[in-house]
Structure formats: structure tokens, C-alpha cells
Design brief:
Layout: H1 2-10, H2 13-18, E1 36-38, E2 48-50, E3 57-58, E4 70-71, H3 73-86, E5 91-98, E6 104-110, E7 123-127, H4 136-151, H5 156-164, E8 166-170, H6 175-183, E9 219-227, E10 229-231, E11 241-243, E12 249-255, H7 308-319, E13 323-328, E14 330-331, E15 335-338, H8 345-348, H9 351-368, E16 372-375, H10 376-380, H11 393-400, E17 404-406, E18 409-410, H12 428-438, E19 444-452, E20 456-463, H13 465-470, H14 477-492, E21 498-500, E22 504-511, E23 515-526, H15 535-539, E24 547-553, E25 564-567, E26 587-591, E27 600-610, E28 616-622, E29 628-635
Parallel strand pairs: 3-4, 7-8, 7-13, 13-17, 14-18, 15-16
Antiparallel strand pairs: 1-2, 5-6, 6-8, 9-12, 9-20, 10-11, 19-20, 21-23, 22-23, 23-27, 24-26, 24-28, 25-27, 28-29
Amino acid sequence: MKFSLIIAALLPLSVVAQGFRALPEKLFPEQDTAKIYTVGGYRHGISFFPKVKNPHVEYEAGSQLTFDKFHSAPAIYTYMQRFAEQYPNLVDIYQVATSYEGRPIYQMTVTNKQIGKPTDKPAAFFEGNRHSGEVSSAESVMWLMYYLLDNYGKDAEVTALVDNNTIYLRPINNPDGHNLYMYTATMNRSTVRPVDNDGDGLLDEDSPIDLNGDGVIVKMRYKDKEGDYVIDPRDKSGRIMKYVGKGKGEYKVVSEGIDHDGDGKIGEDGIGGLDLHRNYPENWRPMQEKTGHGWSQSGAGEAPLSENETKAVVSFLLENPNIYVVNSMDTRVPMHLRAPSTSAPEERMYPEDLKWYTYFDEVGKSITGYEKAGDVYVAYNDGRPSTPLFGHGPDFGYFYYGAIWYGDEIWDNAKPKEDLNGDGEKDELDQLIWDEKENGGRGFIAWQKYQHPQFGEVEIGGWDPKFFSQNAPSGQIERWAKNEALFNVAMLKHLPRLSWADWEVKKIKSYKNDSTDYRVRLAYRNEGKLPTALRQADLIKIVKQDRFNIQFTGELAEGEKPRYQVLEETLNQPRPWRKEDAKPSHKYYKEVGHAEGGATNTAEFKIRVYGSGSLQLKASVETTRAGQLPEKAITIQ
């Protein structure tokens, strides 16, 4: 209201009197009825693409959320809004940031709002769709959302999780890339911000193109005397190409498209190219360092947190340090993936923290069936020479934020687990068999002849890059989304949980001058499994020590000169910066470190009481990541 009045005061009276019409709300390509999808940003290549409706995607929300297909952003937001209306005591939806192109980034908080504030509870954060095309991660966040809400009040464990914890859910952290992926044949890595990927001084000048208009950008093969491929002689259908070495083959195999900039390459500099998963502040490196002798990181962005989408994650987490568990999901190794990304775990991680990570590695594999789990630097490379990743989310999550943080990879590219054709190999021929048997043959786009403007006759075809290679096909996604979500539920079940333990007030000595000494013992218990904070979290001071807050009340605490005394400085008092500002206070505190899972922490102190009269204390427990214990009143005398 104040803002409206200020605007009115600044406008000429005649304009106010006549009234004025507000500008129409901006429509994004996924919202309008145009047949062309236009991408924001200045670039040297094309910014507009034909819209498509992919059969693997549900573009409008149905009557009920199901997982037989993937979901567009508008459909996801519709389901989120329905949940908010259906569960008003459990759900809040809000915008946390704005994307590069100006789209809102939405997030949901799930907790029982009638049992404490969200910020007073242990918390978890689950994020999907940081990378444009890795839409399986959004489906896993949505599956978790549905599971928690639908089972609340029905399943005792789920009900307790929602009552006692706060779960932050962000299905789509990169709505620009998500919508480009879902509404066009185009693919890109992450943000759509124009970038010079091939170092020729041009931005996004050579994007792949859907030449034959079938709604999918696949591969082209054409005969060439300097070819690198042959048709695999084992494949009687002639679909699979086999690499035989540079210049030793019969065919070239390249991306579908044309060579826009005449450099002999196709599709090497398409839309965007930055990587939001290399834009975190921990151990960030530039895309090009100046000396030629140091480390650089492709896709890192102009600076740490230069991209709105990454900044939106980091800012939210730093503002909400009660978050203990994070999974920021991708596709498609599959693997439970974590820090470190630039060194072996034993070189940089506290052993007691690493023990928890290796434990969750095994928990994850037992639920999802993934073959791999572990760190980026050693385990991910799996015997290959270790290659560091800089500015990586899991490293921020542990080293900078002190949390249990995974960047899990969903889907396995239909990697064959069995030798289905009995030839002693597990390869693309087995993938073809699996595709035909389990996926109705949708995974491979049959080769079709096409007259190319630069190469003459070519064939266009190959594996579906979106809903076979990068993500599971529709009809297969729910199992992957569900299993990953259940791993996240398992981590939720390990969060710390506080309760009051036994307390004691004991008279230890009486004096002739009418004074008495008491020993007071307070205790709380961590009934959860994780400690109230990791050791790394304490080192970097993202958390405070667990703390008893104590206030004395009653007749003996009244007046300018209280008739009790805390002995031996066993309790601390908040102190002003200047001694001159100090005032009498009955508030004290005691920091007690952090409680391991199943352990009890205590505060013991002595007080001396003078004369008769009542004296009570009110005690509470305050932690950063394990929640708070409500005030407990104890009578001393």
C-alpha cells in the first residue's frame, strides 16, 4: 500500500485521475501458444527453436500425480500448489530466487507447523534439476514430496519425520534449462547464459539442430574416406556404430545439425555451457587461468556464485544452518556421489565424519542397488587417473558447510547387467535387446536418409539422448526416482533428535549464617543417530556448540541484590561489549560441545542460596542442527 501511494504521488495528477493499466505479466515460451521457443540472452547463433511435445512428458497436470511420465515445470508447480492447499498445516510454497531468464525458482517446506518453527528443527534440503536435462532428479524430489505428504498420519515413521524435522524441497533449481529441454529438441548442460564453449570468440554460434523435424536431435552418419566408424558387423540390423580409430573406418558420426561457423565441427557451441555444479565457492577455479601452468575448470562461470541458480542454493543454506542433510541430484552414472572432489578422503576429512559418509554409501547402495558409492576424486574415477573437479557442490557441502551432502547420479543409461545375447560382452547389442524387451524399442531412433546441405546424403538416427541415454524412459523412471527418494528418507531417519534426560537438585551443605549450597545437574539426550553436528561443521563455525540456557526466577531473584550466587563460575553470563553497559542479570548459559547419537550431555553447577524464599530455574537447550528443547522449570528451594 505504501509503495502504491508513493508511485501515485510521483505521477502527474492527470495521469492518476485518468487511471493507468499495469503492464501485462511476462509470458515465458512454455506458457504461450506460439510454435517457436525463444531463448533469452545475446548470442551469435540461433535463439529460437520449434516447440515439441515429447511423448515421455506430461505437460499439463492430471487429476493425480503419477510417475509413469516425466513432468513439465508448469505441471510440477500445479501439483505443488495442490499439495499446499491439501496440507495447509504441513506445506509452504514460496519463491526463493529468480533464474537467468527471469523465471521464479520455487521451493516447498514440509513440516508440522503446529509443532515448532521450521527453523527450530533439524532440517534436510533436496534439490533437483540443476542441470538442464537431468530431469530424473526433479521426479525424485516430487516422489519424495508425494511420499511424505500422502503417508502423513498413516505411517508412524513418516509422521514422526514430518513432525520433528523440516524438509526443504526444490524440484527445479534451473527452470530455464528445464523448460528448454522439455519444450524443444535442444539440449544444454546447465544455465542458458551464452558462453563461448570452443574459444573462437563467438557465443553459442553452433547449436545442434533437429534437421528432419522429428522432435529429437540424435546423430548423423555419413560415408567418408577418413571415417572413424564402421557398422558393427555383429549387429545384423545395421544400427550400432563401432569406433575403430581415426581414419580407419568407413563412416563419420557427428551430432545432428550443420556447421554454422565453418570450423569443421557440428554442435560444439550450443545454447549456454556454464555448469552450475562448478560454480560453488569451495575450491573454485576460473575457466581459463592466465599462466598456462595452473588448474582451470570448464563451465565454472565468471566467479564463484556468478549464477543466480547456484547463489540461490548457497544463500538459502547459509541463512538456514539447521540443514544437516543435502542431496542435490543429477543423472546418469548411477552413483551415490560425495566429497572430496580434489583429493583422497583420508587426506582432508575428519575420520569421524568420513565414517558417517562411508556408512551412508552402504545404506544408499542397499536401497538403490547402485554398484558405486563414494568420493568424486577416487571412487568416481574408478581406477582411472584421478581428475579434480573444482567449485563442486559436494565439496561446498562438506568443507564449507559441514553437512552430509550427496550429489547423487540417477539412471544407468540402460547399461546391461547381463550378457543378453550370449556373446560374452555386455554392450550396446545388449542395450538394443533390453530396449526392445523392456521399453518397446523406443530408445533407438531408426536411421533415416536425409539430404544434408553440406555433406550430401546422410542418415539420421541413434539412441534417444533425452529419454534413454540421459534419463530413464517414461514407464521406467518411477523405480529410479523412488529408490533415490527412499535413500533420502533413510538419511532423514538418522537426523539427531533431542529429549530431556534426568535432572537433579541436591542439597550439599548448610551454613550457620542461614545459607545453603545446592548442586544442580541438567541433562539432555540425543536420541537420533547422527551427532548434533559433524566435526567439520564445528571447525568452520557454521554451527554453535550445544548450549543450556538457564534463567533464575522467584523471590530470591528479585530486587537489586539477589539472594543467590552461582559458585565457581561454572556457568557463563552474556556480557555486553563495554563493561559500563553491564546490568544485573539472572540469565546464564553453559556450552557443552556436541552430543553423539545416543549420548547424553550434562551441565552441572553449584549455587548458594541466602535465607528463605522461593528460587526456581528455567532451562532450555539450544542447538544449530539438532533442534531445540522447550523450557523446563525446576524448583531449587
